[in-house]
Amino acid sequence: MVKRVGIVIAGVVVTGTLLATTTSIQAATVKKVTVGSVTGDAEIWRHIADSSAAKKAHVQIKVKEFTDGGTLNKATASGEVDVNAFQSYDYFHAFNKQTDTEKLAVLGTTYIEPMGVYSKDYHKVSDIPDGSTIAIARDNANAARGLRLLANAVLVKLKANFSALSGVADIADNPHHFKFKEIDDTTGVSLVKQDDSVAAVLISNSVSQAGGLNVLKDSIYHESINSGTIGNINILATRESQAKNKTYKKLVALYRDPTVQKWIKKQYHGTKVEVKKPVSYLEEK
After folding, report:
1. Which of 55, 150, 200, 225 is the most buried (most CB within 10 A)?
2. Helix (H, G, I), strand (E, B), or coil: what is residue 41?
3. Whole-model pTM?
4. Which Gene3D superfamilies match (predicted)?
5. How far apart are CA 61 and CA 30, in angstroms?
6. Which CATH superfamily includes the segment(s) 116-223?
């Protein structure tokens, strides 16, 4: 009897040890990643952090929110943040050109938020009369993006050296004699609804959405995924020395998980258009 009890106790001890070891191994396989982000992107990554997809991938995500993109990129380069999710490829490229810290690398593509042309009087860009006034953002990045959109709509032609920070002065040909009114981007929606002196307004998606407009339904023309909009595709980035980190690369797959995409589509009314292009596609720019 004593011998039998001893065997049972030993069995319990061994089982307990095995369970503790298994739990320890499972805990050890969970990788922690700090994702730096801003506004809507931070909301997305908080959702991903709590998702079943993240648990299955054994990735524990901590989201650290920033208000300034430049500060976030520097935090990523220094290692304070592992991966960041907020910026377009053009913004990333500009940072790498001017930084004196470690450069960043692209882990993968995520989405494009189309910029749109809005008008209360016209239903097609071709209907905008010659000599009309078009409102564009005062800040260089959005102004350049807006002018590229007009060029894509074949309304203007841009100089060969037109860059992500170019403006109206870099229009090569303005055959419709449009006038351009520089505005604070955040006033774009009210201009569309109230200002009769403006025929059309170029508005970024974050602003139009905040103002109750859906770029896919309410704009008369908007960006699509093509060679002219490569620079506007959003990415996940990390410091260059971690470009091949397998855990960080899992975040790209997590972003593209069908259940995550279903939530993003519903949450943002389809305006964060998923981009599944490889990193090599960006490098064609």
Report:
1. 200
2. helix
3. 0.82
4. Periplasmic binding protein-like II
5. 10
6. Periplasmic binding protein-like II (3.40.190.10)
